[in-house]
Design a protein that fits this description.
This is DUF885 domain-containing protein. It comes from Deinococcus radiotolerans. This protein has 398 residues and is mostly helical. It is built from 17 helices and 3 strands. The protein has a 3-stranded mixed beta sheet with strand order 1-3-2, covered by helices on one side. The chain is globular, with a radius of gyration of 21 Å.
Amino acid sequence: MPTQDMTLQDKELGQRLTALTIGMDQLERRLSRGHGVLDSEGLVPIYLGQDLVPAPTYDDWEEVHSELAALDQATAHAAPGPRRAFLEDMLRSLRTAARLFEGEELSFREKLEQLVGVPAEPVSEDVIHDLQARIDSLLQDAGYRSGTLAERVHRWEADGAIASADLGPTFRALMDEAQRRTDALIYPTGDYTMALNEVRGVPFTARCNFNAGQMDLNVDLNFTRSALKHLVCHEVFPGHSTQLLYTRAAAERGESTPDVLLCTANAVTGCVQEGIGDQGVHLIDWIEDTHDAIHMTLRRLRSASATSAAWYQMGAGWSEDRVRAFLRDTSYGQPVWIDGRIRFASYSFRGPFIASYWHGDEAVRTVRERIRPDQRAAFIDTLYGQMHSPRSLMMFQA
């Protein structure tokens, strides 16, 4: 693992930022008792650094705001560049989180711009139309030439759906290959593994349940092999589980600033976390055929559509029926997936993070596609070994 160039100021700010964030997490959990805007999830759902950066005890939010102000002042003296950009974005995000935890009402626009760190707007219709055209072309290449685009997408997904009895064996085979590729191209994950946990009645498609060693999969949905491959890469190798393993080791060895331990935070860091997951198949060079290309393009379309739909629902005030029709006609998603997106968008704190998938994926993809082969190692070290907002990641230079 390459060692990034760090100053003592970087390390000190990273230590203080991590302590502040975990202190906020503990204060929110203590005061809300599982009934606040984050329920029982907390500001940092998975934290592996208790022995490296323990949580300070804050008595009230005034102490939090005092430390936020002090870190603002320290950041203002940092050299211009990606690190300062990230610190500025993260502190704005945490300040917004604190306001929400205190009970302040913020608009969906404010949450998108200040908490998630993304534009408060739908994805361009031109982008969505271009993705639909690409899917149309790929489906024709795969032999799906008759019917509307929606009909062909549904037929392609139905034809490739994995039988229920085959989900477990297919998951294990895909995970084994994903781990082999991740070990070779990203980071040696050792003997870490995950089990498949089938769930129903949840608003998500899949989830990294790291502490339980499980990938939760919503089996109310049907999955093609390409779709399940993407989820394995997103949640396990080289996605969320891999990032957690990497950041814990990097922080423990002093190869990264302590704030890498905040990779799961419900803050501006969430964009790049989801971007790593959504780019996972590409990061380990695992597009095998046209079916994989169809799914990965369809995934981008659905991410874009969900981002737009969340804005129309929570920002523009569309009715749920109108939002549901938009998602049906634009993304061609399964009804259970559409219902899940609508539920997700409506959550007071987590809802705006639906946009983190599209914007995080675009940030990681843009940088990945522009680097030269000789820059890959530096890119991986930056991507996994540093915390980023989309703005700071886009400033990457090997």
